[in-house]
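Please, structure for the following, as tokens.
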Amino acid sequence: MKGHELFHRTVGDLGLGPIFGNPGSTEIPMLRGAEDYILTLHDSISVGMADGYAQYSGHPSIVNLHTLPGVANSMAFIHTARLNRSPVIITSGQQDSRHAYFEPLLWHDLSDLVGNAVKYRYEVKNPEDVERALKRAYSISMEPPAGPVFLSFPMDIMDQEADYLNLGFRSPNRNIIDNDAVKYVAELITGAENPVIIAGSEIDEFDAFSEIAALSDSLGIPVYSEPLSSRATFDSSHGKYAGDLPPATTAINLALLRHDLILNFGGDFTIYPYLPSPLLPGKRVVTVSMSPSYKYGEYIFSNPKTFLSELIKLAKGGWQYQRKEEPGLNGLIAREKRSMGPNYVLQKVRKKFTGYTIIDEAISSSLLVRKNIGYSPKSYFTAKSGQLGWGMPAAAGISMHKGKVLEIVGDGSFMYTVQTLWTISRYNLPVKILVLNNDGYTILKSFSSSFYPGLEKAPYLTFSNDIVKIAESFGVESRVADSDLKDMDWLAEGDRPKVLVANVPKSVPRLFI
């Protein structure tokens, strides 16, 4: 078999596909025989789509990038996939190795370029490598913590001959548990005066919603969401849910002031901006996770779902936490109705889009998105890296699994990967997009007003675009919402892709301490 035949045979045997990509000349040799290919109009969009596709399914996806330009164009998305723990297999063409010495057009050391943004990187040296490199990459992408891997395929390898070995293959075991650690944590709970739980994105990744709720109920203690989680963490309608922890040391310390034992299941302490307060001084913090990127306290390497299921059997407690509803939200929404404020808009979303998966890239309104719409399994995704432009491609990728997907995006973020609309339209993907339009980078205006007063008025933080015309130019229906938001019904109707623009106030909220 030729190299390109080995490539597609292995991709098929691994159950990978579709291939997301934007091809160039170096990829044409390896794309012969590709039958399931999703075209994007920028390389980075293919990685964002594959990221969303892999996160929602829990299985690896595959991308094909155009050598140096394509990989370089996609680096921010590759970095985000790593932080999102998305098992994306990134492939790339490479210049013909027979004249690599001369550093021809499009040649570059691609393994060096991707660096530590991926878990594994390799450039295929002979056709025998094709099958085994893909299978090794698949396995490594799924080994906890999951993440992207990279393979480079020189053009000449695709026409060289080798046998398909049909190598045996198994996905890595992710049901890892430390039973001694379960007993240890149960003893810590027994000796604690006021324990608390933090739920992280791994609760959604490993489907541990029922287990963490059962532990909270049996102990009678509150559950917070990790700061700036990239996924849903805990059922926000549950009576023990205490809300999202803020991403600042001082604010975290205040929220957890009364608690002596902090049990962190599958989460992380994402901090921004810098504050001089040390994080959780004098507190006992135990993290149970499949990612060794923990930053504070003791660390236990275990699958959170498996660990929680065993801990429930041993942990004893009699605390009596019950959530108190925040006062005044209905009044705030009523006041915002006059100016179509974001709380008012998002309450409409909550009513009209029940059962939808929300992709959040409304950066200056993300806290409001989380508070108004809440969490449930596979219901919420955002970029762990804080990257702009990730949301629309990720929404497109997720929509290939689920028909009900809504992206909530700011007008600034919308423009980063607007070419995604072409792919959404071409493949008729059922993505609904709500643009919260405030004519500028409001998150930067808020940051500036808190730390660099006066800079929020800089002209380069304000702009305006005709989003309706832009969306329609890519073949996607679009309109501007009226003041009563009756157009929300239009957005929710049917399974065709649509864009609705809600012109929210241009005032600058105080988002930073």
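The mean pLDDT is 94. The longest helix spans residues 43-57.
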